[in-house]
Every structure is written in C-alpha cells, then in structure tokens.
C-alpha cells in the first residue's frame, strides 16, 4: 500500500490516503503520543486533487448502484409484466415489500462500515478493516433470520394489502424464494463497503457489470418454465454469483491485504455495540426517506389516473437524479472517514470540495429537469393532458432535487464523521413531523393534488438540508477526530 510521497502528491485510488505510521513520527512526538494528545498532520493535498479523487471514484459507484437497481427492481418487474398485469402487480408489491424489509435494513446497517472500516483504514489499522467487515456480516446474517421467517410467512401482512386471492398467492410465492438469497445480499453489501473503504471503488463495478447480462439470460430461460418464480429465482442466483465473485476478487486479486485471517469466534461476537450505535441510525436515515416517497406515491392514487401516471414518471426520473449525488456522497463519506482516521488537517480542503460539489449538483439537477421537462415528458406519453401534468410537476420536483442534493451529500459527510444519530433524528423530524402534514395540507386542503404533495415534501427537505448543512459547517473536527480514537 503506497503512501503519499510529497506534499502535493495527487490522491489516487491506490494511495494510502493520509497517513503512514512510519512517517507520522515526523509530526507527533513520543511524549505527545504518551499523553494521548491529538496532533493533526498538516495539509498535504490540493483542491484539484480532492476534486479529481471524488469525481473519478464516484463514476464506478454510480454504475454499481444503477446496475443494482436494475437487478433488484427493474429487470424482475419487466419480465413479470410479460406474464400479465396480475403478475406485474404481484412483482411490484413483492419487490416493494422486500425492499423496505431487506435491502434497506442491510444497506442502512452496513453504513456503519462507512465509518468504522474507512476510519480504521485511514489510521493504518488494516486488520481492523477486515475484522469490522466480518463482524458486520455476522450481525446481518443473524438479523436476516427473522427477516427470512417473515418473507416465508408474508401472507400475514400482505393479506391486508391484496384483496385478490390470486394476487396474494403470487406475492407470497415470490417472497418465499427470497430467503435463499439473503446471505448473498449481506455478503455483497458488506464486501462492497469493505473494498470502498480501501478506495477500491471500481472492484464491485467489475463484478456487477457481468451480473446484468447474467440476470437477463436467467430471466429469459426461467420465465416460461417457472412462471412468477422465474424473476425471483434469477434474482437469487444472480446475487449469489455477485457475492461469490466479489469474494474471489477480494481473496485472489485485491483487498485481501486488509482481511483478518486470524479472526476467531470470540472476535466475531464482541464489539457489537458500536455497530448498533451507527447501524440503527443508518437504517432509520434510509428507511425514513424510502417510506416518505412510498407515502407520496400512495397518496397520489387519490387524485385520478392522470395525476398518478404523472407521479410515476417524475418519481422515476427523480430516482435517477438521486443516483448522482448519492454516488458522490459515498466517495465523500469514505474520504472524510479516511482523513479522520489519519488525524489530518486535509479535512479543511476536502469539506470545501464536497460542499462545492453539492451546490453544483443542486443547480445541475434543477436545471436539466426544468430545461428538458417537455422532451422527457413526451418520451413517456403523447397524451397532451398527461404531458402538461408531468411538466407542471417537474417545476416542484426540480426544486426538491435542488434541495435534496445538499441533503444527500451532507448526510454522507455525517456518516463519515460517525454522526449517524444526528442524521437519523433530522430525517425523522423532516419527513414525518414536517413533510407529511404539509403534504396532506397542500395536496388535499389547498387542492394542489400531486403538486401539493411534492411541495409539502420540499418543505420537509428544505428543513433537513439546512439543518444538516449547519451541522456539517459547524462540525467540531478536532473533537470528532479525538472521538475516533476510541472507535478504532
């Protein structure tokens, strides 16, 4: 693992980002170490170097998340639609149920690795990077047991949402296969973050690039033979191939340098408290936002077919727009945690670059949604009323995206700092204390319909973005760096 060889050396994917224990003694005296004082390494990076690092590494992250979305959602729904409208409805309901009860929990809890693994890597505690990954996999595998029991017995819940007995049977059949793939989802998510913490952002992308054609092929093969079991079987097999391929990559190609091969059972089952302290708020952050958008879509059904169709279009494009700042946020979170672990003043440069990118992306998403709203609307429909409704909604959705970019990236900074509790608390207040009542008032009482729902959501996101931005700007960096000592 290479080190920074000069003060102006640019950051690369394989650079040990900030600190090498053999050189840190140039700055930290032995007496200071013994006194347990935090002495920060001087700045040895540049604005251009930080910008290049984040943009370069966010591209493979973007590809990875888009392809995961295709594998988890779009491809199964597409092939289920080939079996008929009832199968399409069953797949949509099953995937929504699976998402909020599985991947959201796994993704949210594994954000603890964004803090722990990345901080340990920045501090040069390389074996701890692997140990943290192993502990997180162990915890999530245990959590997946009750989740699998729920999926296998999902009729208990779904019967309250599906009145049609045939639709209910299709949903139950779909979810009963999912437990077979649960360990693969856990291994891939944790393995992905294990590599990203070492700044190996392109490794998961290399694996998932081959997974998309595989899942397409499996769906084609299974669709006629297995009916509704076809898409979910293809999903499970694909995820197992992804998990195994990522494991082979780590142990045979790159990433094994940080794996702890001497871990025993007592090591795996100790030190869990910090995972729950970081992981539960991480779950709440992601789950609160996911459910907020589900509520918005559910409320849209009250305003007629045209309004619901327009909501489907703008929410799909909003999900696409979300991926760009989210990818930037992943790289920013890793970079900041590396800096904290290294106890370096590089945070002064990095945080300015990150916030600058947040502002740029806010204007970028807002601009393309407004400028291209008519061409985009016509891609989905030729109906004049629907096109006009979509374009009308794009004005408020674009404003929401302007604010959400700041929220997404500031939330990532808070994760890198290990301050998930702040992010989760603000998310719950913003979406359910502020946004949801505003949605009801503006959408129903003021008669603004779906436009009012998005406007109410924008009010909540405004509060969330401003609050998170204030938390980031006024961060006690030295206190955060000092606290990271006990964390790793």
From TrEMBL:
<feature type="transmembrane region" description="Helical">
    <location>
        <begin position="172"/>
        <end position="191"/>
    </location>
</feature>
<dbReference type="GO" id="GO:0042910">
    <property type="term" value="F:xenobiotic transmembrane transporter activity"/>
</dbReference>
<feature type="transmembrane region" description="Helical">
    <location>
        <begin position="59"/>
        <end position="79"/>
    </location>
</feature>
<keyword id="KW-0812">Transmembrane</keyword>
<feature type="transmembrane region" description="Helical">
    <location>
        <begin position="228"/>
        <end position="251"/>
    </location>
</feature>
<feature type="transmembrane region" description="Helical">
    <location>
        <begin position="91"/>
        <end position="109"/>
    </location>
</feature>
<feature type="transmembrane region" description="Helical">
    <location>
        <begin position="308"/>
        <end position="328"/>
    </location>
</feature>
<feature type="transmembrane region" description="Helical">
    <location>
        <begin position="275"/>
        <end position="296"/>
    </location>
</feature>
<feature type="transmembrane region" description="Helical">
    <location>
        <begin position="203"/>
        <end position="222"/>
    </location>
</feature>
<feature type="transmembrane region" description="Helical">
    <location>
        <begin position="129"/>
        <end position="152"/>
    </location>
</feature>
<dbReference type="InterPro" id="IPR002528">
    <property type="entry name" value="MATE_fam"/>
</dbReference>
<comment type="similarity">
    <text>Belongs to the multi antimicrobial extrusion (MATE) (TC 2.A.66.1) family.</text>
</comment>
<feature type="transmembrane region" description="Helical">
    <location>
        <begin position="392"/>
        <end position="414"/>
    </location>
</feature>
<dbReference type="GO" id="GO:0016020">
    <property type="term" value="C:membrane"/>
</dbReference>
<keyword id="KW-1133">Transmembrane helix</keyword>
<dbReference type="InterPro" id="IPR045069">
    <property type="entry name" value="MATE_euk"/>
</dbReference>
<dbReference type="GO" id="GO:0015297">
    <property type="term" value="F:antiporter activity"/>
</dbReference>
<feature type="transmembrane region" description="Helical">
    <location>
        <begin position="426"/>
        <end position="444"/>
    </location>
</feature>
<protein>
    <submittedName>
        <fullName>Unnamed protein product</fullName>
    </submittedName>
</protein>
<dbReference type="Pfam" id="PF01554">
    <property type="entry name" value="MatE"/>
</dbReference>
<feature type="transmembrane region" description="Helical">
    <location>
        <begin position="450"/>
        <end position="475"/>
    </location>
</feature>
<feature type="transmembrane region" description="Helical">
    <location>
        <begin position="349"/>
        <end position="372"/>
    </location>
</feature>
<keyword id="KW-0472">Membrane</keyword>
<dbReference type="GO" id="GO:1990961">
    <property type="term" value="P:xenobiotic detoxification by transmembrane export across the plasma membrane"/>
</dbReference>
